[in-house]
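User: I'm curious what two different proteins look like when written out as structure tokens. Can you demonstrate?

Assistant: Sure. I'll show them one after the other, since each token string lines up with its own sequence. Here's the first protein:
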Amino acid sequence: MTDRKMCVLRPGPRRRIRARAAIRRTDRTRGRHAVVLFACAVCLWSLTAAAHAQQAPAVPADEPANQTTESSFQPPVAPQAQTAAPLSLSGYRIGPDDTLAVSVLQAQELNASVRVSPHGEISLPLLGTLRAGGMTPQELESEIERRLREKYIRDPDVTVLATDIRSQGISVVGAVRRPGVIQLRGSSTVLEAISAAGGIADDAGDTAVLVRNGSGDRELKLDAVLDGRDPGANPPVVAGDVLNVRTAAVVYVIGAVRKPGAFAMRGNSKLTVLRALALGEGLMATAATGDAVVLRTSPAGGRVEIPVDLRAVLQAKTADPPLQPQDVLFVPTSGGKAAALATIGFLSRAVSLRALLP
């Protein structure tokens, strides 16, 4: 019994060998599993890298690294989008001091904003100095495209826009609300020039004078110009013209009137004594209607006094005398009327005070 128990508790050499062999087989199995797992991980990593490579294709070696692909190409933005809005012109020709925005679709580095020199020239990258004065923007575009086509770009697309015009100025002076130099926007007329100057002023007369170098002066009737129905009465203006809106002749009304002042003569011969009094808002109560005079400057330079009986004119017993430019209508104050009004005012105040006393 004792030997059998010892055999169970202490395995023999064969059993120990078998146990060691089983352990070695287990270790080999675990090693093979680890190798398989590592191989799977390597394959998974390779598949992931290949998927990323397909989503972001490599740039060819013969192309610059910073060149954009065809799917992400954006059309170049012209420089005028970053500057002032371009002017829409008709018949405009480039002149000195104008500012031009030049853009080349195929080469943004050639885009430029240039000012025309006093000699009518501009300077562009690669092309150097070009003659631009006297050309339309379309003609300048064709010239730039021709030069680029000769040496640099096979089929260039050039745009020229005028962003600031300073060469098409005319002077509008005289009886306008904003006299000064006005820049033309293409073909313009006298009426458009007056409108750009704010319209005629309150003291404007009936005529305007258009002065043009080499063509002499031309007198225009403002009524026909402002009416706009007759094209011949509203001629076109060109750069360098001077438009002078003449100031109306005036007459002066002073003395015992409600609103003394200087009043324009629309038509230069249509203002009479009664119309001048109406502009002065009528006579005051103290006016000496029988002693009014018109002061007029004679051709010799002296002063002439012309008596006017306003009472007879108001009663239509005599004709309404016409006034001439620079006439002065003086209505004196009647001493008797002034004294009577002063007395009446004093008595009125005295009666009012007595009524207030107990």
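Here's a second, unrelated protein for contrast:
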Amino acid sequence: MATKNRSSARASTLDRQFGHPSGVMGSVVGYAMAIEHKKLHQAVVDRLVLSQEDKVLEIGFGPGTAVKLAARHAAFVAGVDPSMEMVLQAKRRNGPAIRSGRVQLQRASASALPFANETFDIVFEVNSFNHWDSKESGLTDVLRVLRAGGRFLMALRQGHGPSLESDLEMLAELLARTGFSQIECERHQLGHGGAFVTAHKPYKVTFSDLMLVLFLGG
């Protein structure tokens, strides 16, 4: 029983480090994530199909490898992460882009994004969603900082609990309830397997828009 408890405690500590890396162990975890998730980060950035006009935000950037990849294509890439260890590690990895003003990284949570309304064309996260303090508050703030028509891409990891399909159904409902539209899910086999989820911020329809449609239709 004691051995089982020690194993459970070690697993819990490791899980906390992956969710919020800190100290020496957090630094090691960050470098491990950079190596382990290399192919996944590249796949995510490829799916974003970035242009030189895009302003992009990553939530939970970890060691900053996906930020570095995105900065090669986008006009500007910002990132937030609650771990100061990851902020420091990611800043070292993205030093030149930060100094040129194309990348901005800071410590913050998903539910309190330090940006003005409708700042970004694209927001994405990679395996960080399950570590958000408040998923609903975080999604609400993502919707706030996205421009109308903007995209939100999530890369979710296959967990050890209920089936991923069940998780995706609940997530789709939560995204729709928050105000997102055009929600699509696609499984992937990268790393431990998981799914990509894409959602959009709807365009606002004003009274003037409605009158124009009625006028053109009449």
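A detail about the second structure: The first strand starts at residue 55 and ends at 59.
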